[in-house]
Amino acid sequence: MSDPAPTVARVTTTSARGAARSTARATTKTTRPAFACTECGWTTSKWVGRCGECQEWGTVQEVGAAGVGPRTAAVVPTRSTAREIAEIEVEAARHAPTGVGELDRVLGGGLVPGAVVLLAGEPGVGKSTLLLEVAGNVAGTPRADGRPRRVLYVTGEESAGQVRLRAERTGTLSPGLLLVAETDLATILGHVEQVDPDLLVVDSVQTVASAEVEGSPGGPSQVREVAGALITAAKSRDLPVVLVGHVTKDGSVAGPRTLEHLVDVVCQFEGDRHARLRMVRAVKNRYGPTDEVGCFDLSESGIVELPDPSGLFLSTAGPDVPGSCLTVALEGRRPMVLEVQALVAPSALANPRRATSGVDSSRLAMNLAVLHRHVGLRIADQDVYVSTIGGARASEPSADLAVALAVVSARESSPLPPKTVVFGEVGLAGDLRPVVGLERRLAEAVRLGYTHAVVPAGRPGATPATGPSGITVHRVASLREAAHLVTTGPRS
């Protein structure tokens, strides 16, 4: 009879080998390296030559091991004590004015201590000029304890001499404004420790890099590291920080989307390169509204705020010119009077031209179709040109009626009644739809001296029957009725 011991030994050896292989596989799984794209941050468990997100070649690199399970333990003792919300002091979180009223309007009253503001815009729009103006206004003003404030302006795109020349031209040479040309993150943080400023401006976040992180300046990993370090410094020191950001060709903020989530306020600086008007609007604001717009005038001597920009959007041709119509547009919560001009001329082409500037071309095509079908305006063989004044954009639907009446006025060579503003959305059935902010639009028209307003009739009881004192409101239900006012409307 054979001894069963060898069989048991073989089974035990086989089980031990299987357990060893399982342990090796588990160890390999937990220490498997992770790879990420240095351009967009896309991650994968194995190396590939081309990024699966942005389709760039040679940008996927190993970033470390992808561990499993939580790795962060509680810190004992804690650095702060949880308190009831009613006991939290709010005086230190009040807005501090920047000295630029239009920017304070957008920010909700000014800069909040510890807040991080990202100001993005196209090259040459005036971001550095505006922030240099803000830095010069804040520098030298007294603190609560009476000491003058100090502002640290970090430039990574220009030399210190170039910024000094701009400061001379714009008149922002303040004694408390400190300037340094630096692109190393550790050195910038060292300057913050040394200077202890009341405001930090970094121009721009895409030019600053950290030696502890791989990748070129402006890459996703570098932008995340730079933004994270500056945000940590801002929160720990109650230091307001303003970051200048680049934009891509489609107008969005360059870099990873995480940057917009990390900061407290995201502002867009907009403006036509060939016009002087500049607008700042808040896309994200944790401390104020996101529907306010600040208007500025950019000139050789600097940037000037425009509390009343309506005059920039009006021509000096006079009220009796055919093809001109005035409307009141809402930029956020700010009403502004815009002038829409139209020119209708016989066309020698088989397909007449439809050219626009400041007006949506698709909405113009829709308005022309409604005019042809429901008003009987014959423009199939005519070239139509529609433009706004001063580089403004009439993009909201309430400008439909102004565009349509400007075309009617140009086609019939009949000017609109003087001191008249119109606003309303045109429907495909030839009807006029109500617009939002009717009271604010009428109040702005009264303030600027207009005496007549053509508005949609709307539903009975939905809008007030009369407007504010000083203006006569004419309510019309259809585009045909509104076009009739071009030649037979009220005259002042």
Automatic annotation (TrEMBL):
Asked whether the UniProt record includes Disulfide bond among its keywords, one would answer: no
Region of interest called Lon-protease-like, as start-end residue ranges on this chain:
383-492
Q: Which GO terms describe its biological process?
A: recombinational repair
Q: Which GO terms label this protein's molecular function in UniProt?
A: ATP binding; ATP-dependent DNA damage sensor activity; damaged DNA binding; hydrolase activity; zinc ion binding
Gene3D superfamilies in alphabetical order: 3.30.230.10, P-loop containing nucleotide triphosphate hydrolases
State the domain notes.
The middle region has homology to RecA with ATPase motifs including the RadA KNRFG motif, while the C-terminus is homologous to Lon protease.
Designated name of the protein = DNA repair protein RadA
This protein's species is Luteimicrobium subarcticum
